[in-house]
Design brief:
Two copies of one chain form a homodimer. By secondary structure, chain A is mainly alpha-helical. The first copy, chain A, has two domains: about 60 residues, Winged helix-like DNA-binding domain superfamily/Winged helix DNA-binding domain (Arc Repressor Mutant, subunit A, Orthogonal Bundle), CATH 1.10.10.10; about 140 residues, Four Helix Bundle (Hemerythrin (Met), subunit A), CATH 1.20.120.530. Helix content of chain A is about 70%, strand content about 5%. Chain A is built from eleven helices and three strands, in the order αβααββαααααααα. A three-stranded antiparallel beta sheet of chain A has the order 1-3-2. In chain A, helix 5 runs antiparallel to helix 8. Chain A is elongated, with a radius of gyration of 19 Å. At the A-B interface, helix 3, helix 4 and helix 7 of A face helix 3, helix 4 and helix 7 of B. Chain A binds a DNA duplex through helix 3.
DNA sequence: TGTCACTGATTGTCCGACAATCTTACCTGA
DNA sequence: TCAGGTAAGATTGTCGGACAATCAGTGACA
C-alpha cells in the first residue's frame, strides 16, 4: 500500500502556502489585511525567502494582491470579480458535468451519491457554513469525476476564491431548496444523460447576483 | 497619455520568467530540456533566488515540471494533456465568443475585423508558424473582447502550452481553409448573434486529434 | 549478479545585508 | 488654512554565501 502521501515530504514553501491559504478561506484573515513577509517568517519560524515563494503562490491564485515595494494584502472581491467567478464557474461546471456523465462508472455513481447524501444531511440542519462546504464538495466531486486534471485545477482556484468570499458574508438561504435542487444533476450524471447533466449543472449554482444580494 | 507601460518597472523575477517562457514557446528549449537554477542565474546575471521564483511561476503555468531535489525540466505534453488543453480551450472560447457577442461595440468590431484581416493575409503565404500565431491572435482578441479578466488569464495559460507544443511539431494543413473557416465566427460576434458565436467558436478550433495526427 | 556505500550534482532552506520604493508624518511658505 | 516639499520609517526587491537534504550515477564487494 502506498502511504507516501501520508508522509510529510512537502516543501516548507508549500506547507506555508497551505497554512496561510487556510487562514484566508476560513475568514481569519479578512480582505484588506496586510501580510508582511518578515512578520510571517517570524510567526511560522521560516526564512523570508521561503515565505516569499509561498506568497507568490497565493498571488497567482488571486487570493492575495501585491503592490510593488508596498506590501501584500488579502484580496478584496469586487462586483466584477464575483461576476467573473460565477460565470467562469458555471461554464467549467457545465463542462465537468458533461464529461462526468460521458464516462460515469458504477463506482463513480456510488461515490457521487454518497457525497449528495452528505449534502442532504447538512441541509437538515441550520449550519450555513457546513451546507456551503457540502455544496462545494458535491460540485468538486463532479469535477473530479470528469477525469480532467486541468479542469480540476482551474476549478480549485475558483473554489478557493469563492470560499474566502463566502466565509466573510453571513449568507442566508433556504437549506431545503439547496438540497433538493441538486437531485436532478446527480441523477443525470449517474444515468449518463450528458446534455441534461450539463444543463442541470448551470441551474444548481448560486449565482453572483444572489451572492451580492446577501451582502 | 499613459506611457507607464513603456517604462521598465517590472521586477527582475517577472522579466526572467518572461525570457525563459519565450524560449520555451519558441521551441528553443525543447521538452525534456533540464533547467538548472545556478546555470540560469549565471546566464541571466541574476541571483539564484530571483531565478527560483521565476521557475516557480513557470511551474504554475505548467510549462515546466519539477522533481524535488532533482531539477526542473521543460514539460512534455502527453496525449492526455493535448486532450485536456483542447477541450478546455473549446469550452473557454465558446464562453468568450458568447460574451464578446453580447456586448460588442463598433470599436470592438473594427478591431476584431482588423485582426481577422491579418490572419487572411498570413494565409495567403506558406509560413505555417505565422499562420498559427495569427490564428491564436484572433482567438485571443475574442477573449479580450469578452471583458472577462479571469477568462483571459486562464486562456493565456492554455495558449502558452499549446504554443510550446506547436512550435516543436511541424504542422501541415491547408492555409486557405484556416482563413475562411473563421469568417462565420467573426461575423456572428460583430453582429451580436450570441448563440451562433458560441457555436462557431467550437467549430473553428483545431482539435487535439488533428494536432496529434500531425506528430 | 545484485547490493551497498560513495561521490557529485542540484535543489531546499537559512541568514544577513543593502538598495529601491512606497507611506506617513512633519514642516514650510504663501 | 492649505498645497507642496522633505525627511524618516517600513517593506519589498535583490544579492551573495552557506549548509543540509535528496537524487542519480559509479564502482566495489560479496
Amino acid at each position: 500500500m502506498n502511504k507516501s502521501a501520508l508522509i510529510n515530504k512537502r516543501s516548507l514553501e508549500d506547507q506555508a502556502a497551505d497554512l496561510i491559504r487556510e487562514d484566508i478561506v476560513n475568514g481569519e484573515l479578512t480582505p484588506g489585511t496586510r501580510l508582511v513577509e518578515t512578520s510571517l517568517a517570524k510567526e511560522y519560524g521560516l526564512s523570508r525567502g521561503t515565505i516569499r515563494i509561498a506568497l507568490h503562490q497565493l498571488g497567482t491564485e488571486s487570493l492575495i494582491t501585491q503592490v510593488p515595494y508596498a506590501g501584500w494584502s488579502v484580496a478584496q472581491l469586487t462586483g466584477q470579480d464575483l461576476w467573473e467567478l460565477s460565470t467562469l464557474r458555471t461554464t467549467l461546471e457545465g463542462m465537468a458535468a458533461r464529461l462526468a456523465a460521458e464516462h460515469i462508472t458504477a463506482a463513480g455513481a456510488e461515490q457521487l451519491k454518497a457525497v449528495y447524501a452528505d449534502l442532504l444531511e447538512c441541509c437538515a440542519g441550520e449550519d450555513f457554513n457546513a451546507i456551503t462546504r457540502a455544496d462545494l464538495a458535491l460540485h468538486k466531486a463532479i469535477v473530479d469525476l470528469s477525469g480532467h486534471g486541468r479542469l480540476a485545477r482551474q476549478y480549485q482556484l475558483i473554489e478557493n476564491q469563492l470560499l474566502s468570499y463566502i466565509s466573510v458574508s453571513n449568507q442566508s438561504f433556504d437549506p431545503a431548496v439547496v438540497g433538493s435542487s441538486h437531485r436532478a444533476l446527480v441523477d443525470a450524471i449517474c444515468e449518463g444523460r450528458v446534455d441534461d447533466a450539463a444543463a442541470e449543472a448551470v441551474h444548481s449554482i448560486t449565482d453572483a447576483e444572489q451572492l451580492q444580494q446577501v451582502l
